[in-house]
Amino acid sequence: MELAPEQCRAARGLLNWTQEHLAERAGVSRSTVRDFECHRHVLHRGTETLLIRTFEDAGVMLLPPGEYGPGVRIR
Fold first, then answer.
1. Which terminus, N or C, of the chain has the lesser number of Cβ atoms within 10 Å?
2. Where are the domains of the chain?
């Protein structure tokens, strides 16, 4: 699955997490999260995997793009 910047922001919103909190939980820098969410750069595959796993471990389901685009929901 490919994580979209909008999904990242939405997932953080569902969890009420800051960029800093996500970065700490995933073991990445805050600037990585910030720059990704602002479309400044794409993520390396390993970093993307860390973010996806962090969200999934926290109970967020990342929905693949469909008719309305990618989405998120809480389990």
1. C
2. 5-74
Q: How far apart are the first and last CA of the chain?
A: 18
pTM as predicted: 0.93
Residues 2 and 48: their CA atoms lie apart, in Å, by 8
CA–CA separation, 33 and 31 (whole Å): 5
Structure tokens at 7: 């999904």
Map tokens 């999260």 to a residue.
Answer: 33
Tokens at 37, concatenated: 């969410």
List the beta strands (DSSP E) in the chain.
60-63, 71-74
Q: Could you confirm whether domain 5-74 is CATH 1.10.260.40? A: yes
